[in-house]
Amino acid sequence: MLLSEGSFQVNWVSLDNVPLQGLLYKPENFDPKKKYPMMVYFYEKNSDYLHSHIAPAPIRSYINYSLYVSNGYLVFVPDIVYKVGSPGQSAYSCVLPGVTSLIAQGFVDAKHIGMQGHSWGGYQTAYLVTRTDLFAAAEAGAPVSNMVSAYGGVRWESGMSRMFQYEHTQSRIGGSLWEKPMNYLDNSPIFAANKVNTPLLMMHNDADGAVPWYQGIEYYMALRRLNKPVWMLNYNGQGHGLTQRQDRTDFAIRMMQFFDHYLKGKPAPEWMIKGVPATEKGITKGY
Question: What is the reported pTM?
């Protein structure tokens, strides 16, 4: 058991018996006899960043470890390894046993665990909430929710077809839509949206040149149709990640308010309860 505060490397075994590593960040004056809310963030492999310093400033698309640790959260960053054809299940097989191994150590509040990811991490977050109710809340940034429609899309910044990434690179389906149609369906969160019970916050911007924001719209509309707890943030004119500091700050505030509500029991802000009318966007914050 790790007793002091700081960042540490942790080890566990995936459901496929693959040895894995990850990072665990603990707050100052950490007491292993207490139970802490925990945030889980992932994007493929991050364990090599053990000694990297993260300045406590707004980040373009994901949680700031320093900010959350300073506010009493544990932050867990697990590595993920993949099997071609099953990217969603691969994330499940790696992340879930990593989380449960920490719960078993006694200092994680198992009822107050959050999950956050952006882009490829956002896809995995959107997928995982269709498979487990372990997380009390989740944020999925710029997620692909429907691999069938995404396969036929383009990357708006470059005009490049998106097919290559499913057949050969990050999305790891390993074949065309006609060769492996069930892999596209099985790995698409939208087709299991009826199984989502986890409150979900999304951020997908209308100038996203990597993941077309209709992917976020599809998932949001599906969850709304199913009466699931879901919110979607759109920063007009912003791309795949936020570049303007005021937008980064706004996103950081809203994301922490969202997680503080579900993981710490703080009151929900007005924007979560009533929303912000389009005519008041940028004027009324609703914090």
Answer: 0.94
